[in-house]
Amino acid sequence: MHATTLGHTRHSFPDLKALLAAASPHRSGDALAGIAADSDEQRAAARFILADLPLKTFLAEPLIPYEEDEVTRLIHDSHDADAFAPIASLTVGQFREWLLSESADNPTLAARAPGLTPEMVAAVSKLMRNQDLIAVARKARVTAAFRSTLGLPGRLSVRLQPNHPTDDTKGIAASILDGLLMGCGDAVIGINPATDSIPNTIRLLELVEGIRTRYAIPTQSCVLAHVTNTIAAIERGAPVDLVFQSIAGTEAANRGFGIDLAILKEGREAALSLKRGTVGDNVMYFETGQGAALSADAHHGVDQQTVEARAYAVARAFKPLLVNTVVGFIGPEYLYDGKQIIRAGLEDHFCGKLLGVPMGVDVCYTNHAEADQDDMDTLLTLLGVAGVNFVMGVPGADDVMLNYQSTSFHDALYLRSALNLRPAPEFERWLEGMGLLRADGGIRDLPAPALTNLLGQAEAAE
Amino acid sequence: MSDAPANDPSTNDPWARLRLATRARIGLGRAGDALPTGALLDFQLAHARARDAVHTPFDTDALAAQFGNVPVVRVVSAAPSRAVYLQRPDLGRRLSPESAAALPPGLFDVAFVIGDGLSATAVHAHAVPTLKAILTRLDGWSVAPVVLATGCRVALGDDIGARLGAGMVAVLIGERPGLSTADSLGIYLTYEPKPGRRDSERNCISNIHPPDGLGYEAAADKLAWLMREARRLKLTGVSLKDDAPALDARP
Fold it and tell me: How far is the C-alpha of B129 from the C-alpha of B190, rounded, in Å?
């Protein structure tokens, strides 16, 4: 029981997860789950209580029982007490102030990360304004590498997302070329397959591999199939760079995805065995998003932002190259409008980075959410300031297979230009070699004859 | 439509042939790093149409009039407004108390529910011709009065079908609009409907929006086949999956 009195009103919360839920900024998913604060005053009261709570509380009181949930076991069994020791005496409120202080610089944050649990970072995020989330995240640089190095200061990478409703070879190739010519694809060329089968996965992997090797592009490819299909593709000799999987913050929600920690380990080992990385061996690509556990009825009464942070604890156990919160995809029953999507995107990026995860964000929305491209511009810009590792590049921001709106190649160019950010260093050198890089770091339009020639080659090659 | 001068298909658009292979917005050209104005406005129009489809009120009067002498019953879900409907899918799966009391119990082979879902535009355009095509294929079936449901999620059909005493329920419902298609209709068939049915216990026909998507007659053929199989096997869902389309993203 946690309680406080504000004025003449006593506010009490039966347990830690109820307190965390009530302290969360309002969002539709927590209301749908019946765990949101009853009033704004109750929310403020919860934050006062939370601010005085020792960080150690989260080690002593698991939100989801250790015996019932392998994600809880992972969090507690892998907790690094030595890394935690220097901040072990802090309350959540003091932790916020320490994070914002000069002493919490990048090396210090990296050293503390193994001592932090997702519940601690979720808790402190609930006391932070958007500017706090940005200010701390931009200090917490997390780099990862495979054929390109992602997450370096002053860099912004892009997942090139060339989806097609029928996985048409030429249609996908056309979108890939469009993105490459606009300087995108340094995070990954990643296809969501319309059909998640082993032969189709292999066909798409070979398609991207062909383009990548033809132009000697220092990037990695991924077909976002189920981990079991990717393992099967590896067994059949397919050119797999990265193993993809959607993950969530509870064992039950992961079962809903048809996975557990053991199968993720198996997937990682299979990809590592191929030794295809040139500048690093981070071989995992995970996607997450607030609300996933609730939609699977697997949230255990924990608020959606805290469950989401637990997914990053799953991710970091497998040393990923890319972790991407697909923040507005799930729909308005979880994040109703632009305000909620923007807040969630900043929270997810902050929590991931603090835990030592190489975070990117799919800045996105669906047509039944109260959001539009103006909201996406806002979140994209904020994330650029916050030092996000990568964002999505979808032709014209319109994903014609998944039917939602994300960010475009143009958006990535805007962000790089506005904040003086550059592509991953290996990819930047490649762009220069291809004559696509301007002296000011922007992307040059190919002269029409060169473009026609290139596109003609591409067509002929299919 | 949207092409910058350098991209004009009437001149020499290097992307023209690749554009035939995908609806993706490729080769849009640039104004600085941003979109040319035409492409910017094209996108806004597509989004506006999708938004309008989500928020257009469900016109049950117009639908009822199109049915002529086919008996029709109107119900509303427990979601009192569109804003609440979008945030509380659980309320869209239950009838309002008044509507629940108004549905007469009976004994029918099948009930049809037409629900707004996430696109009233789709329902206004395609639900009546689709259902009329289905009804011509149901000789010998006893059919409940057609239910027009406002604030409807797919699972509202479970509540409706159970109260009507229907052996199965088919819900015709507006699918979530995309930028390229704002008027796509889906049909979800559930055997022995009752509250608590899982999505895996339904069969779905999606993407009904002629002329680009599935046509009325083809959709009616598919549904009639599914209904006969459901009656024979006494179930719907994954066991019918091999021959019917898989469940798509539901509204």
Answer: 21
Give the position of tokens 């972790």: A323
Q: What is the DSSP string of chain B?
A: ----GGG-TTS--TTHHHHTT--S------BTTB--HHHHHHHHHHHHHHHHHHHSPP-HHHHHHHTTTS-EEEEEBS--SHHHHHH-TTGGGSB-HHHHHHSPP--EEEEEEEE-TT-HHHHHHHHHHHHHHHHTT-TT--BPPEEEEES--TTHHHHHHHHHTEEEEEEEEEPPP-SS-S--EEEEEEES--TT--GGGEEEEEEE-TTTSB-HHHHHHHHHHHHHHHHHHT--SGGGTTTSPPP----
B82 near A CB under 8 A: no
Torsions phi, psi for B230 (to 5 deg): -60, -40
Distance CA B171, CA A312 (A): 39
**Can you tell me the distance from the alpha carbon of A21 to that of A305, in angstroms, rounded to the nearest whole number?**
9
From B140's Cα to the closest Cα of chain A, the distance in A is 39
Domain ranges of chain B: 55-240
In this complex, do B24 and A164 lie within 8 Å of one another by their Cβ atoms? yes
Q: Which residues 65-94 of A are in CB contact (within 8 Å) with B?
A: none
Averaged over B55-64, what is the pLDDT? 96
Architecture in CATH of B55-240: 3-Layer(aba) Sandwich (3.40)
Residues 137-176 of chain A with CB under 8 A from chain B are: 162-165, 168, 170-175
Please indicate whether, in this complex, the C-beta atoms of A333 and B88 are within 8 angstroms of each other.
yes
pLDDT above 50 for B103 = yes
Q: What is the count of residue pairs from A and B with beta carbons less than 8 Å apart?
A: 129
In this structure, the strands spanning A398-399 and A404-405 are antiparallel
* pLDDT value at A4 more than 60: yes
Q: Which residue of B has its CA nearest to A370?
A: B51
Question: With a CB-CB cutoff of 8 Å, which residues 179-208 of chain A face chain B?
Answer: 182
Among B26, B177, B180, select the one facing A175 at the smallest CB separation.
B26
Q: What pLDDT, on a 0 to 100 scale, did the predictor assign at position B181?
A: 86
Q: What are phi and psi of B77, to 5 degrees?
A: -80, 180
Q: Which amino acid is at A423?
A: P
Q: What number does CATH give the domain A144-433?
A: 3.20.20.70
On whether any CB of chain B is under 8 Å from the CB of A373, the answer is: yes
CB distance A162–B24 less than 8 Å? yes
Please, what is the average pLDDT of chain B? Answer: 90
ipTM of predicted complex: 0.94
CATH code of domain A2-137: 1.10.220.70
**Residue-wise pLDDT tens digits, B185-195:** 999 999 999 99
B124, B62 in Cβ contact below 8 A? Answer: yes
Spatial distance between the Cα atoms of A108 and A115, rounded to a whole number of angstroms = 12
CA-based nearest residue in chain B for residue A400: B24
Query: Which residue type is seen at B73?
Result: V
Instruction: Tell the residue number behind the tokens 């054929």, with chain if given.
Output: A147
**Residue A428: beta bridge partners?**
none
A111 beta partners: none
Provide the residue type at B16 as one letter.
Answer: A
Cα distance between residue A168 and residue A200, in whole Å? 11
Determine the Cα–Cα distance for residues B202 and B114; give it in Å rounded to an integer.
16
CA distances from B55 to A134, B47, B85 (A): 34, 12, 11
